[in-house]
Design a protein that fits this description.
Elements (H helix, E strand, L loop, with lengths): L12 H10 L11 H14 L4 E5 L2 H12 L5 E5 L3 H4 L4 H6 L3 E5 L8 H9 L11 E7 L10 H13 L3 E6 L2 H8 L14 E5 L9 E5 L8 H7 L8 H11 L3 H21 L5 E2 L7 E5 L4 H7 L5 E2 L11 E5 L6 H16 L1
Parallel strand pairs: 2-3, 2-4, 4-5, 5-6
Antiparallel strand pairs: 1-7, 6-7, 8-9, 9-11, 10-11
Length: 349
């Protein structure tokens, strides 16, 4: 009953096989190999346009480095108050941008609205040289609360940002889960709606360590290659990242893994919601379930071996009571049903 994080799930067998295959022979380093070039082209095909693609090993590096190109050191990055860049990257975005100011914005269910963005911008009037100029809006898809933005919502947010002169970055650590949930195409969910740069995650969805930064207008990438090198994220053996993406994209593996995780989370959420006294805090739209258990049920479940985290972040309506459970590509119906059965038994007792 492991629902602590999709990071706990390890790597899919297809990814491990691709890594073993990539280990054969000798190829040029630092991304100069044929496999890396082929995967860059595959991502351009996936998004239906010519993109600038850069591979890194972690989501934190992908986010921070993407923002470092889009925002000057004296600029502002608007983001949700519960977003990963705000809460979980140890000021990495501020470090990699050279000091850009993160401006957290509240929003129900981990989501921002165009109105909230416009209201926030109105509170920072243009006051050079005293006020930091707004530079980037950073969105998370799917969100830290397990919710998703529709194509129309993204378009409204991008229109608001671009109208004020901001670029738009999307943290897509769980982009695959969101894509499956919306039924949209990768292009429709990103650049067609106005997104300028995407942190395209693979690690949470069956890869070992594979993230890509995708700029939908190559001109916006500017000096990213130098920033990546300076930050220590230009891997000499780049083929071991791109081999993962090669397998990830083959035969829609990435979508199949995400779809399974989403289905398991929905099964978990529906089962828990049917138990009296158990409250589902946010809609379960991807592979995350946020739940409040009555009494000491959470502690008893952990004592029985279940693994999940308490969830406390700014703005939570159930601070101190909420727990986050995450399903992965490895989650089984049996462990979901066993967890639901244990919750039912504990609550009824």
């Amino acid at each position: 009953m492991t629902f602590a994080s999709d990071n706990w799930a390890g790597a899919a067998p297809e990814i491990i096989e691709a890594l073993a295959h990539a280990n054969e022979g000798a190829v040029p380093a630092y991304g100069g190999d044929a496999l890396t070039k082929r995967v860059e082209a595959r991502l351009c095909d996936l998004f239906e346009r010519d993109c600038a693609v850069y591979f890194v090993a972690t989501g934190g590096a992908a986010n921070g480095l993407a923002l470092s190109v889009l925002a000057p050191p004296y600029g502002m990055v608007l983001c949700h108050e519960e977003s990963h860049v705000q809460m979980d990257e140890c000021a990495g975005p501020e470090f990699l941008t050279g000091g850009a100011k993160l401006v957290p914005i509240a929003g129900a269910g981990g989501k921002l609205t165009a109105e909230a963005v416009q209201k926030t911008l109105a509170g920072y009037p243009h006051r050079p040289p005293h006020g930091s100029p707004p530079a980037v809006l950073s969105l998370t898809q799917g969100t830290e609360c397990g919710t998703i933005y529709s194509v129309d919502e993204i378009k409204a947010l991008c229109d608001a940002a671009h109208g004020a002169g901001l670029a738009v970055h999307m943290d897509g650590a769980r982009f695959a889960n969101a894509l499956v949930a919306t039924g949209a195409s990768p292009a429709a969910l990103t650049w067609m709606a106005g997104v300028d740069a995407l942190s395209f995650g693979g690690t949470k969805n069956g890869c070992m360590a594979a993230e890509a930064v995708v700029f939908f207008d190559p001109a916006k990438a500017r000096d990213f290659e130098f920033r990546r090198k300076r930050a220590g994220h230009l891997l000499s053996k780049m083929r071991f990242i791109t081999a993962q993406f090669d397998a990830y994209l083959t035969d829609d593996l990435w979508l199949r893994l995400a779809a399974h995780a989403n289905v398991m989370a929905r099964r978990l959420s529906e089962g828990l919601a049917a138990i009296d006294g158990v409250e589902i805090a946010y809609p379960t739209e991807i592979n995350e379930v946020f739940v409040c258990f009555p009494g000491d049920a959470a502690e008893r479940l952990r004592a029985n071996g279940a693994q999940f985290y308490p969830w406390v972040t700014p703005g939570d309506p159930a601070a101190g009571r909420m727990n986050r459970l995450i399903a992965s590509f490895r989650t089984t119906e049996a462990e979901v049903d066993e967890f639901i059965a244990q919750v039912r038994a504990i609550v009824s007792s």
